[in-house]
Each structure stands twice: as C-alpha cells, then as structure tokens.
Amino acid sequence: MAQFGGDTSVLQQVFHPVSDLLLDLDKPDKAAAAVEKLIARADESRPVLIKEVQGDAPLIRRGWMIVALKAMPGDNVDAVLEKLRQESDSELVRTWTAAALIARAKNLDELLGLAPTSGTGRRDPLDRPFMARFQEFLQQPDQEVPLEKLVAITTRNSHLTSIAVPIILQQGPAPLTQIMLQARENRNVRQQAAALLGTMELQGNHEVAEAVANALKFDPQAKEVPWAGGPLFLPGLVWNAEPNRQHARALSRHLIAWMLWADRQQQQETLNQILNNLNSNLMAQSAGYRLVSGVREIDEISPATLAWLKEWKRAFGREVLLDVLQEQGVSDDPHYSKALE
C-alpha cells in the first residue's frame, strides 16, 4: 500500500487502487503518464479525483487532476469544475478549471457563457484557448449562433471583439434589432446592438432602417412595448438619406402611437424613453416634424403627449393624426381630441 506522507487529503484516510497514480502527479517525470492512466480508468478514478481536487492537496497535484477530469465524461465533473471556477481561493485553480470547461463545452452557446473578460490593456490568459474553441465550433456545418451572448462578449472583452463583430454583422439587421429591443442581460448589450446596427449600415447594408422601423411597429392589442424590461436605444443611422427618410417617418409615427399608448397606460418611464428618442434633431429633420420642448409634467403625463399630438397634426395633417387616435379608440376622448382642433 502506498504511503501518503504528511498531507491531509482524503488519500490518508481511504485506500484506493488509484492512490499511487495520484501521488505520481507530484512527480514531474511521472505526472503526464499518470494522467493518461487515470483517464483510462475513469470509472474508478473519477470519484476520488472529484473529492481530492476540492481538498487541500498540493497545488501541482490539483492542476494535474483538473487535466485528468477535463477528459472524463459526466455532469458531476462539469459541476465540480464550475464550482472551483467560481469559488476557489486560488487564481491558478480558477484559470485551470475555466480552461477545462472551455475544452469541455458541448456547443457554442455553452462556450459563450465561459467567455473571458479583459480590458484594452491586458489580455486574459483564457483568450487564446477560448478563441481556438470558438473557431472550432464555427467551422461546424449549420452552427447556430447565440447572437445575444455574442453581442454581450463585445461589451466585456475587447480582444475577442475582432472575431465576434464580423460574425454578428453576417446575421443581418432583423435579429440584431431584436437584441437591441429585448436583451435582458444588461443595458450595455442593447446599446451595443444599436451601435452594431449603425456599423452594419456603414458597411453597406441598406435594410437596417426598415428592420428597425418594422420592429417598432405599433400594435393596438399590445400589453407592453416592444422594448419592455429595459431602455430604448435606436441606432445612429443616416436617417436623412433615401430610402431611410421614409423609414424615419414610419418609425416616428410608430413612436407617436406608442407615446399615446404609454400616456393611456400612465407609464411615465416608457413615455420618457419615447420622448428622448423623438427629441432627436436628425430624426425630426428626416421625418419632417419639429422638436417639442418646454412641456413638463407635474400631476399627469398628458400635457407633453398633447403637445406632440398637436405637432403631428401640424407636420402631417389632421387626417394623419386622426388615424393615430382612431387606431387606439380615443378620437372622441376630449383628453386627446383637443389636438385635432
């Protein structure tokens, strides 16, 4: 039977047939061969490895254990590696387990959840293995791209942006517009999606403005706005050039309708989001309306809404405004019909 020396690991208390191999992990000339033998005897060695890697074994031994576990099947292995990645006091152990999980990722969606974080000045040691695995997945036929996670990566790791952005732009404006409106992870993802839509147009995609206008089309039966759950960002497009100008008018018409809807629902935050986007000089010039300013709400939200409805009548005519009001069944409501006078 092997003698375990002075360490306090589980190996001292429980004899196991793989114990000699585990001790060989401490020896530079035997470690690699021991790992191969542990992998070959995975059913036998995995339970002990899972216990030992979470204990106080020497750091070098834990590192080789992670190498062995990386090659072993089992959800329990993934769970232990993820726990160590999140909770280990050792930065090395956290890095080793993250690298193992990157190697074990079953699909691109799972891999993107492990994307390293780094700023502009420092490269994360996991960037290289992550990018290699990322490229490997992309080469698989019919690979589905989890677009929101990919956009999120560009907000967290500048070194991965160069490979992520071209893939994002290849997906076209419609799915990226949905992320701009509906991403739940954080506001930065929505804002980044809006910025990427601007980049997409600059690179020659002439369908972006139409996609944005279509995504914000007013629905009289809606229970919530299309961007519910977060801020409303719009891309900085060349709205004042054709064919974008017609889409700018359609978009602003949808926003006016959502403004009226928010007023009727008494959703002050939503109303403010809409007004912030309507109060764009470029959008106003492109769509053909004037900015409305100087109207402040005190006890109710209707004064600003009424001022904008009046501007809509001035800019586009009474019939156009009447259509907006009738769409929501308020053309006879004295609260709003004042705008028709």
Please outline what is shown here:
By secondary structure, the protein is an all-alpha fold. The chain contains 19 helices and no strands.
Low-pLDDT regions: 1-6, 8-16
Main beta sheet: strand number and arrangement? none
**How many strands?**
0
Spatial shape: elongated
Instruction: Tell me the span between the first and last alpha carbons.
Output: 98 Å
User: What string, H for helix and E for strand, traces the elements in order?
Assistant: HHHHHHHHHHHHHHHHHHH
Radius of gyration: 29 Å
Strand residue content: under 5%
Helix content: 55-70%
Structural class: mainly alpha
Number of H- or I-type helical stretches: 19
What is the arithmetic mean of pLDDT?
88
Write the SSE topology.
Elements: H1 19-24, H2 31-40, H3 42-53, H4 59-70, H5 75-87, H6 91-104, H7 108-112, H8 127-138, H9 147-156, H10 158-169, H11 173-182, H12 187-202, H13 208-215, H14 244-265, H15 268-278, H16 281-287, H17 302-316, H18 318-327, H19 334-337
Helix pairs in contact: 2-4, 3-4, 4-6, 5-6, 9-10, 9-12, 11-12, 11-13, 13-14, 14-15, 14-16, 14-17, 17-18
